[in-house]
Specification:
Number of helices: 1
Shape: globular
Number of strands: 13
Largest sheet: 6 strands, antiparallel
Bound molecules: manganese (II) ion
Structural class: mainly beta
Strand content: 35-45%
């Protein structure tokens, strides 16, 4: 058993500009140690922030804890996501997720990682035009 206490020493990292648009802050929730492959992060997207297009070789689960967010798979509608929503992304399904233009969004992201399966393969940024397209669930 290993207890990692909350600490003021450098826990939160800023999402790299190659992978995110806007301000994104990442805190580790679960850190994989072999043979476990589980990895989880708490991710804060400030208003307007989102991931680039990407895919996860082993898939990904998201659980929204705060705010209002958006997600979209390649070729699919933009979906509004809210606290309590759980999103499963299939292995290698191209997608993005993030905040709405005007609200922050916080989710826990759960991934599996090993030598053959990195967390993600990253593509191009989500443009402002893509990000502000009308969501499928805007009426709800
Ligand atoms: Mn993802």
């Amino acid at each position: 058993m290993q207890i990692t206490r909350s600490s003021t020493e450098g826990a939160t990292t800023k999402g790299p500009a190659d992978w995110f648009t806007g301000d994104v802050y990442i805190d580790p929730v679960a850190v994989a140690t072999t043979p476990s492959r589980a990895q989880a992060n708490l991710v804060h997207f400030m208003p307007g922030a989102r991931t680039a297009w990407h895919r996860h070789p082993s898939g990904q689960s998201l659980f929204v804890t705060e705010g209002i967010g958006l997600c979209q798979r390649r070729g699919g509608p933009i979906e509004v996501i809210r606290p309590g929503d759980r999103i499963y992304i299939e292995p290698d399904e191209e997608h993005w997720h993030g905040a709405t233009p005007d609200r922050l969004m916080v989710h826990i992201a759960i991934n599996e990682v090993d030598d053959e399966h990195p967390v993600a393969h990253w593509g191009e940024q989500v443009s402002d035009e893509e990000h502000t397209a009308v969501p499928a669930t805007a009426q709800s």
